[in-house]
Amino acid sequence: MSKVVIETRKLSKAFKGITAADQATRVIHELDFKVMEGETVAIVGASGAGKSTLLHVLGGLESPDSGQVLWGTEAIDQWSVRELGFQRNKTLGFIYQFHHLLPEFSALDNVAMALRIGGTDKKQARQRAAVVLERLNLGHRLNHRPAELSGGERQRVAIARALVTQPKAILADEPTGNLDLETANQVFASLIDNNREAKAALVMVTHSLELAHRCERVLSLSKGQLTVVK
Ligand SMILES: Nc1ncnc2c1ncn2[C@@H]1O[C@H](COP(=O)(O)OP(=O)(O)OP(=O)(O)O)[C@@H](O)[C@H]1O
Ligand SMILES: [Mg+2]
């Protein structure tokens, strides 16, 4: 029996309009969803459908209006902000739609930071970060800052940062969104390699139906619900 790594129970989230007359944007509506250990799931849907919001709520970066998110068997709303941050660092790797690297830090230190937050000492964190960056073909860019990297290189640093803690699940928000086809294929391949080797579940939002269909499951987000495409 495989285990559940992320689960939602009757999860709902809406954004209120700016003025009282504006309608609320209902993004997620009473969603029951499970991600199993080691599986790959693509989430597709129109721009504005709520894909990023869903990933943020799954990752505990935004709170739902009602319902629950569980990581394994633990409901995440039981934790303080500090404990949630600690548990997130242990459980999940998050790849943002826009990479969110720290501009003043090198590629190496951006990746090492994820381990430092979990309590790894500096030397060991840097060693492990270097290994992951080398595997993503960035061994020659360790000391470059984000501004000195190409878009694809930045995205690979962001992926290295998500993988370095060996999380149970990777949540990736359009990780290949701004990349040319060849680089997008490489970036996707590195996520799939990690999935196979580390058995980490992958939940990936993408506009590429081609990449989506290379995942085991494809779900489409529309009107607050996920429907099965594959
Ligand atoms: N903080 C916010 N306040 C108000 N409305 C928001 C907020 N964040 C997102 N929204 C709205 O919620 C809806 C869903 O946004 P979201 O970013 O989740 O869409 P998406 O599916 O990721 O789109 P894209 O494919 O363009 O990235 C949009 O209509 C957006 O305008
Ligand atoms: Mg988005």
Helix and strand arrangement:
Elements: E1 4-15, E2 25-36, E3 40-44, H1 51-58, E4 66-71, E5 74-75, H2 81-91, E6 92-95, H3 107-117, H4 122-135, H5 151-163, E7 169-173, H6 181-198, E8 201-205, H7 209-212, E9 217-222, E10 225-228
Parallel strand pairs: 3-8, 3-9, 6-7, 7-8
Antiparallel strand pairs: 1-2, 1-4, 4-5, 9-10
Helix pairs in contact: 3-4, 3-5, 5-6
This protein binds adenosine-5'-triphosphate (ATP) and magnesium ion (MG).
Magnesium ion binds at residues 51-52, 97, 173.
Keywords:
230 residues, alpha/beta, Rossmann fold, six-stranded mixed beta sheet, four-stranded antiparallel beta sheet, 34% helix, binds adenosine-5'-triphosphate, binds magnesium ion
